[in-house]
Amino acid sequence: MCGIIGYVGNENAVPIIVEGLKKLEYRGYDSAGLAVYADGAFEVVKRKGRLSVLEKEIEQNPISSFIGIGHTRWATHGNPTDENAHPHLGHQSKIAVVHNGIIENYKQLSEKLTAKGIKFSSETDSEVIAQLAEYYYKGDIMETIIEVVNKLEGSYALGIMCLDEPDTLIAIKKDNPLIIGVSEHGQFIASDVPAVLKHTNKIYHLNDKEIAVLSEGAVQFYNIDKEPLQKPLETITWSSESAEKGRYPHFMLKEIMEQPKVLSDTINSVLNRGNNKTIIDNLDFSQFNKLVITACGSAYHAGVVAKNVFEQLCRITVEVELASEFRYKDAVIDDKTFVVLVSQSGETADTIAAMREAKSKGAVTLSIVNVVGSTIAKEADFCIYTAAGPEIAVASTKAFSTQLVLLYVLAIRFAVQLGKLSQGAEQQLISEIKTIPGKATDLLKQVDFIQKYAATCVGYKNVFFIGRNIDYAIALEGSLKLKEISYMHSEAYAGGELKHGTIALIEENTLVVAISTCKRLYSKIMSNVRQVISRGAKVLLIGDCSASEPSDKLSYISLPEINELFSPSLSVVVLQLFGYYVAANKGLDIDKPRNLAKCVTVE
Fold first, then answer.
1. pLDDT at 354
2. Residue 62: how many CB atoms within 10 A of its CB?
3. Structure confidence at residue 495 (pLDDT)
4. Among 80-89, 193-202, 368-377, 538-547, whose mean pLDDT is lowest?
5. pLDDT-based confidence at residue 547 (cuts at 50, 70, 90)
6. I need a labelling partner for 89 at 20 to 30 A (CA). Which of 124, 246, 307, 347 fits?
7. Per residue in 496-529, pLDDT tens?
8. How are beta strands 510-516 and 489-494 bridged, if at all?
9. How many other C-beta atoms lie within 10 A of the C-beta of residue 138?
10. Which positions are catalytic?
11. pLDDT by residue (tens digit) across 36-46?
């Protein structure tokens, strides 16, 4: 879960690399570094801490080159230190490497090299790649890289430079993302598009075990057998401005506010035109007897919401699995199982592994992703894309919301195929979905009240989110949003489970966020509200508040009327804003919460 940037061209590589690292800092911010070729040697600068520390060092001691590699790190092996920061050099300082991923057999490899007298200068698994490369190097850097990666077990995206070929930058990947950008003034490697978008919107996506050889004026591709490859050049359609904060203090707030537009774009993509509509219209769900949804984090919560929608509309049993568990549980699936994989990046390591496990057992797979050309998008049998655009903040907001609406439409289409929905009922539900962007806009106008209420909540030690049925599903996401950016302890529970142990934790100065959009269950959730208030808790009620009277213990935020199946798309907007403003009032680094990274490409 690190960010890689590399450049070779006719401009100074240093500011280009630093600027690219700024766009990738959401991928890792424990340390940062760069290496450039200058005067016959590598000049390496790397520092613990945020990128600003590295920038200050470079300002004080300027360097310049036409080729270089940079890295921003999220620590997996070894603490965040200057020594553990990338790039890493081999023992003769002849080869420089940046790495994203995990080398699972690094201990065996490092022990072998240590026995031959090679000394390591870091605690990382990544350094073994540079040391191994120098050990095997005999004058052909591509041959060396092939020999090295054949020894590696695990995942990697690599940017490599060699002193003997000072005008060449080499890249190779396995299970971690890496793109190649091309421009008139030079060529790039990067972990993600925003790092290069200021310079070019023309990119290639590397597939596993493909090698890219970059020089100032050209890019050549090879397979692991050194055979030349022809790859399609892709054009990125979104602008570099869409990956900027603009007038907002944080990317997260900007992305929350963008939800009406991206929801509308995603809904149109699946209902009115385009590849999404074609794929969903042509899927034949009647051949399957089982539906499994698997994902991680917020995407998993989208799956939990979707379970309620699929089961109610299609009248089938749906399993929702954490991808990190699914990949190891020997799941009971076969060629009659339809597996839906949900991932913002399309590069989530556990979800990739879950997909491959499902396919190996004969299941048909469909992915819902936000990144065109990502691993999951390419390997799933079918893929539909959210139209969320670039999501930079680590905490997912607009990507989650767009995943939900695609899952809604998928459930409706399957229900029609199974004969569970009439054409009239289908159109009624579709009409409701079309109202979501406008109703989200109305909710965003309540931002002042939510901000003021959140300001009163920064002192709570524990926050509990409760709901029933689909409200419980979205409570899981609300709890995650709060804990990951505010560092406050929060948990989500089905309302009926309070009396089975959790209510023992309710006391004075406890906050309970209760979600109530299911009219038939309103009295049930209000019973839970009264129970926690009687024990000293304060409650924020979100949803149907028509019969509630505010008090010093009870505050509420009403939601616009909508079919309860689609209510999570509205309640989540309030939950996102609440989590954001609690964290903002605590003065925290909202876009880059501690210990987290945007794209989880390691176990």
1. 96
2. 8
3. 85
4. 538-547
5. low
6. 347
7. 887 888 787 788 888 999 999 988 888 888 888 8
8. unpaired
9. 8
10. 2, 598
11. 999 899 999 99
Q: Is the pLDDT of residue 416 over 70?
A: yes
Q: How confident is the model at residue 314 (pLDDT cuts 50, 70, 90)?
A: very high
Say which residue, 546 or 99, is predicted with more confidence: 99
User: Closest Cα to residue 324, out of 44, 19, 603, 30?
Assistant: 603
Rounded CA-CA distance 37/498 in Å is 62
User: Are 125 and 155 contacting, i.e. CB atoms less than 8 angstroms apart?
Assistant: no
Kindly give, in sequence order, each residue whose CB lies less than 8 Å from that of residue 277, ignoring residues fewer than 6 positions away: 269, 270, 271
Give CA–CA dist 541/517, Å, rounded: 10
Burial class (CB within 10 angstroms; exposed 0-12, middle 13-18, buried 19+) of 335: exposed
CA nearest 76: which of 105, 50, 102?
Answer: 102
Q: Which is nearest to 186 in space by CA: 7, 313, 37?
A: 7
Nearest-angstrom CA–CA distance, 398 and 386: 10
- Ramachandran region, residue 20 (left: φ > 0; alpha: ψ -120 to 50; beta: rest): alpha
Query: Omega before 87 cis (within 30°)?
Result: yes
Q: Rounded to whole angstroms, how far apart are CA atoms 71 and 129?
A: 15
Amino acid at 398: K
Q: Say if CB 346 and CB 366 are below 8 A apart.
A: no
Report the distance separating Cα 5 and Cα 192, nearest Å.
9
CA distance 299 to 403: 8
Read off the DSSP letter of residue 361: T
Helix intervals (H) in 272-341: 274-282, 297-314, 323-326
Handedness of CA 12, 18, 22, 26 (dihedral sign): positive
Position 600 pLDDT exceeds 70:
no
501: number of Cβ within 10 Å: 9
pLDDT of residue 597: 63
The size of the chain, in residues, is 603
Helix extents (H) in 345-492: 349-360, 375-379, 398-417, 423-434, 436-444, 447-455, 470-486
